Amino acid sequence: MLPHLSRNSLRFKLTALVVAIILPILALLLYNTFYAIDVVRDQVAQSNKNLISLYMGQIDDRLDDVDNYLISLVATNLDLQNMPDNRSPKEELLSQIRLSRKLSNDVLVYKTIDSLFIYTGKDDLLEGINLSASYKQREAVRGYLKNDLHSTDQLSIDWNVQKLGDEYYLLRILATEHAYVGAWVDINQLLMPLKLINLGEKGVSLMVTDKGIPTIHAELVNENRVDLNRGFDSYYMSGDKNRFLVVGDRSMKGNFSLLALIPDEQILENLPYLQQIVSFISLGSILLLPVFLIMLRKTVLRPLNRIITAMKLIGEGNLNIRIQPFRTSDEYQVVNNSFNYMMTQIEELRISVYEEQINKQKAELQHLQLQINPHFFMNSLNIVYTLARSGKTKVIEEITLCLVQYFRYMFRSNLSVVPLQDELKHVRNYLRIQELRSPTGLVPSIEVHEDVADVFVPPLLIQSFVENTIKHAVTLDTPVYLFIDIRMDHSGGASRVHIKIRDTGEGFSQEMLQRLRGNEPIRDEQGEHIGIRNIQQRLYLLYAGQADILFYNGNPTEAVIEIHLPLEPNNLKKVDNG
């Protein structure tokens, strides 16, 4: 399938412009060429039509003279009129001699005619023969008169084309009471002057019958399938193997016409030199149009398409794209080199900005972790102070040991991630501190599956939510159950660590849930709660936004926190444990 081509694209506009310019020029040139051909054909046809008509007029005039002679002979000659059967043989012989001498003398006057004859129907044939008539021709006509005259409709037509043997003859016959008077002409002899017309090497002149049968050059007509049955009021083109211009004129004295077959190639040779150049330019333009479009595509559109493709890939976030070197115009070479240089600078700048962002994120992460330490430190001192006032020495010793372990872990909190076992050990130590502080009120339960024993998590991740539960959910009236469940989640395709923390307290308020889900600061009468917000920001920085943390209320009033941490290697590479 062809690619979609927008009408607003440069490719479409250039192609349309080229076609809009070239096609009208080609159409004009072709119209001019064909018009010139038609004009030349018309001129050639008209010129030859005039010659044919002129000669046809001369033939008709000569045949008309012979007609008048025959009619006069029949009407005025006494020997012809007095040929009854009751005459004496001597008188009949003398009459035939006088008629024969008259025909022999008169035929010399009509040089178009090959023979004048009188046929009595008793095998008596009186002839006046021109010297051009051959013995074979005379015998062919004699045989026709003696054998076939009564079986034809020859007498009903003026001058009739008749094929006798292998040749065609033109005959005129008048019937009297006792004889047939007529004349005949060899058609080849009659057409001799037409050979003087220059019709080209393959052009011919010929006579055809009213049924379109050629009397000469039949082989040429049949080989090229030239149609001779059309009217001759105007010229026309005909022919299969070779094209001929056909012009002709119909005789007024018989059932025949004179034609000229002029080869079309002969006509085109008579075109002016300029018209031949126009034809050559038109043909060359048609042939060169695809070549021009291919060159336009190669020199303009293809280099432009390379640039557009590279820019689309860059728009998709692939900044490593470069336009590969290839042979093109100097202007495109400059554009390509400038484009590659610009992309190299952008990539270097992007790397520098990325490194700066990483350093900034590290500093911000350490700052967020340090914000937790003073918060818990103040709470711990408050616990020791309360125990000291109550005089619980044993408890103070144990809680002091727990605090030592707690702060030892906190001193490691500048790490990005820690083993999960260390984080849970710290949580249990923190819970023990809370139990020593408030023996009743909190019942913890921690369940860790074996497949997550070796994973790493951000430090203080679980402890911060446990601390938040103790602070907001634990009361002296009703025990609060705290459940911590850690397992591997394979439901989303990629494996993730699933941490679920829930308590049986009063749950989150709707305003609290809205702020937590919107990652907004949380403030109450005790001040701003920085713990949960710090965890959200730390997860975003450590895992590039691929970690999820959900807050919702369970049934009936449980506060539930679900954390999903990715385990892909590319995320772990971003972690700096140094």
TrEMBL record:
It is found in: Cell membrane. Residues 298-351 form the HAMP domain. The keyword Phosphoprotein applies. It is a multi-pass membrane protein. The chain crosses the membrane at residues 12-31, 277-296. Pfam families: HAMP (PF00672), HATPase_c (PF02518), His_kinase (PF06580). One of its GO terms (molecular function) is phosphorelay sensor kinase activity. Keywords: Cell membrane, Kinase, Membrane, Phosphoprotein, Transferase, Transmembrane, Transmembrane helix. PROSITE patterns: HAMP. Its main location: membrane. InterPro entries: Bact_2-comp_sensor_kinase (IPR050640), HAMP_dom (IPR003660), HATPase_C_sf (IPR036890), HATPase_dom (IPR003594), Sig_transdc_His_kin_internal (IPR010559). One of its GO terms (cellular component) is plasma membrane. PANTHER family: SENSOR HISTIDINE KINASE YPDA. This is Histidine kinase. The lineage of its organism: Bacteria, Bacillati, Bacillota, Bacilli, Bacillales.
